[in-house]
Design a protein that fits this description.
Blueprint: E1 4-6, H1 15-19, H2 29-46, H3 48-59, H4 70-78, H5 82-100, E2 107-112, E3 115-123, E4 126-130, H6 139-152, E5 156-161, H7 173-182, E6 187-189, H8 192-201, E7 214-216, H9 221-230, E8 235-236, E9 244-249, H10 255-266, E10 273-278, H11 281-296, H12 301-310, E11 315-318, H13 322-332, E12 336-340, H14 344-350, E13 356-359, H15 365-370, E14 396-404, H16 406-422, H17 426-433
Parallel strand pairs: 1-11, 4-5, 4-7, 5-6, 7-8, 9-10, 9-12, 10-11, 12-13
Antiparallel strand pairs: 2-3, 3-14
Helix pairs in contact: 2-3, 2-8, 2-9, 4-7, 5-6, 5-7, 6-7, 8-9, 10-11, 10-12, 16-17
């Protein structure tokens, strides 16, 4: 059901050589880019008409308008299962606690007497958030996108989610209910690359969507390709690929827990990655044995879980020691990394590359997906070595404010002039000399 990679016996290679030995899903965004390019440009030129046409083509629904009526959003909340509402409210509450503490404050540094640099943090003005609606419905992704944007102080928030034939062309009602709980009333029934294009270019008319400064949220390869297409025109969070879990475990780990957690990510998608890194062959055997009955007892077996576990992106990786295991998980840079070892907190503290780290047996990835308070929009495909998950900081821009007096400028002018001339940019130096009668102040 799941393959093995045996890295025992020899010294582990470094850097890219080690990464090349590890399992990873094939996710060719560049190839998808060529297919989404004409879709994005069609939305640019035809706006809402193109969105309606693509809803018919890709989602099988006939729309009369793309923007979801406010009444439909309110009705979705009124009809929401009370237990689901309570769970969403708790998820929102915990996410707000964590994200509110991420807000940066303005700070002024006195560089010299009379010379200061202030860094202030300004939220982007408008964001477009994407909530997937393909194989599963993700109201949790609504929470994870909206809460940090709100806590950052973003004034204008819009959300898009694919239209659903089952619900008359509206996004899934649980998505709409989550929007209602969060106070988001600008929602569009649009999915895939066309939704990203809608936010990037904007559309006109009474049903139109003003352009956004930034687009965030997970999605399929077409969403990722559209984000790449618009990089530079709008801000993006990340090109999200197939979801991943890596578990670093030793002989103290419970194979029942490990198997359950691997399966929990595999049920997302047939390209989802489930990786166990362990120095215990006995644990590897026990987990492999435990997978069989747990998979048989769950849902989405044939279309998602079995293909995901059997795919080239999933494996049990055997190493000589936890030290080697740490090197492996750092090279892998998982979206979600569980540490199920003795002294798990100490090992977790040494991890350098992961989207989020889950410490010990009582912090499974599923907790982070919904109610830990952390964000579940995280870097995939090894991007955790250079990128972070979604947070309040994602929606803020740092702006430096430089304030110098005449004397403070005079004191440093000779250095500025020297550096300008060293770079053969004499006009840079002249901009200072002009302020002092074209003479460099005497020091």
């Amino acid at each position: 059901m799941i393959s093995r990679i045996d890295l025992r016996g020899d010294a582990l290679p470094e850097g890219g050589a080690l990464r090349d030995l590890l399992p990873r899903a094939e996710f060719d965004v560049e190839a998808a880019l060529e297919k989404v390019r004409p879709i994005c440009e069609d939305v640019h030129h035809r706006g809402t008409a193109a969105l309606i046409e693509y809803a018919q083509k890709f989602d099988g629904v006939e729309l009369s308008q793309v923007r979801v009526p406010t009444e439909a959003i309110k009705a979705a909340l009124e009809q929401l299962d009370p237990a689901v509402r309570a769970a969403l409210e708790e998820s929102i509450r915990r996410a707000r606690i964590v994200h509110r503490n991420q807000r940066r404050t303005e700070h002024t540094t006195q560089v010299v007497p009379g010379g200061t640099v202030t860094e202030k943090w300004v939220p982007v003005e408008r964001v477009g958030l994407y909530a997937p609606g393909g194989r599963s419905v993700y109201p949790s992704s609504v929470v994870m996108n909206v809460v940090p944007a709100q806590e950052a102080g973003v004034e204008s928030i819009a959300l898009a989610s694919p239209p659903q034939k089952e619900f008359g062309g509206l996004p899934h009602p649980t998505i709409l209910a989550a929007c209602a709980l969060l106070g988001v009333d600008e929602v569009y029934a649009a999915g895939g690359a066309q939704a990203v294009a809608m936010f990037a270019y904007g559309t006109s008319g009474p049903d139109g969507c003003p352009p956004a400064n930034m687009v965030t949220g997970p999605g399929n390869i077409w969403v990722a390709a559209a984000k790449r297409y618009f990089t530079g025109k709008i801000g993006i969070d990340t090109e999200a690929g197939p979801t991943e879990i890596a578990v670093l475990a030793d002989s103290t780990a419970d194979p029942v827990h490990v198997a359950a957690d691997l399966i929990s990510q595999a049920e997302h998608d047939p390209l989802a990655a489930a990786v166990l890194v362990t120095d215990s062959a006995e644990l590897a055997d026990a987990v492999e044995k435990e997978l069989e009955p747990q998979v048989a007892a769950t849902k989405h077996v044939e279309d998602r879980i079995k293909p995901a576990l059997a795919g080239k992106q999933s494996a049990i990786v055997l190493v000589d020691s936890l030290e080697d295991g740490l090197k492996v998980v750092d090279a892998y840079g998982a979206e979600h990394l569980e540490i199920q070892t003795a002294d798990a907190a100490a090992w977790a503290a040494r991890v350098r590359n992961a989207g989020a780290i889950f410490v010990g047996p009582w912090a499974p990835v599923s907790l982070g997906d919904y109610c830990a308070g952390s964000n579940h929009v995280l870097p995939t495909g090894g991007c955790a070595c250079h990128s972070s998950g979604l947070s309040v900081q994602s929606f803020l821009r740092g702006i430096h404010i430089v304030d110098y007096t005449r004397d403070a400028l005079a004191e440093v002018t000779h250095h500025v002039v020297t550096l300008a001339e060293a770079e053969d940019l004499p006009a840079h130096g002249a901009a200072l000399k002009a302020r002092f009668g074209w003479k460099v102040p005497t020091q």
